[in-house]
Write a structure and sequence with these properties.
Elements (H helix, E strand, L loop, with lengths): L2 E4 L7 E2 L2 E2 L3 E5 L10 E2 L22 E4 L7 E2 L2 E2 L3 E5 L10 E2 L7
The chain binds iron/sulfur cluster.
The site of iron/sulfur cluster has 14 residues, from strand 6.
């Protein structure tokens, strides 16, 4: 399971750059670069109170990933030691990306 650092602090599941969801889905079936991936589990936080009911943040997380061209992807599961999700100002999942994506040769 990767160690996850997520910058998308506008997501309901984000607490202090960690994720409270328990598992996440990364999209980008045809991705050949980082920007073509995204966190499909992103849900925009519309109020501060939404934050409290989303569970406990964890540093390690189960990551299902559709980006089959990434070197870390094995059978749609991420095997990287650590992943970084970008999207500081993201309001939609398309504005997030997996910065750890490395295209296999
Ligand atoms: S590192 Fe690769 S396999 Fe892991 S989540 Fe990012 S794109 Fe998917």
């Amino acid at each position: 399971m990767p160690y996850l650092v997520c910058s998308a602090q506008g997501c309901v599941y984000n607490e202090g750059m960690c994720c409270c969801k328990g598992d996440i889905q990364i999209g980008g079936e045809h991705a050949v670069c980082k920007d073509e991936t995204c966190c499909d589990s992103f849900i925009e936080r519309r109020s501060e109170s939404a934050k409290n009911s989303m569970g406990t943040p964890s540093q390690k997380i189960e990551v299902d990933c559709k980006a089959g061209c990434c070197v870390y992807n094995k059978d749609c599961v991420c095997h990287a030691d650590r992943i970084d999700i970008s999207g500081v100002n993201a309001c939609t999942c398309q504005q997030t990306a997996c910065q750890t994506f490395v295209k296999e040769n």
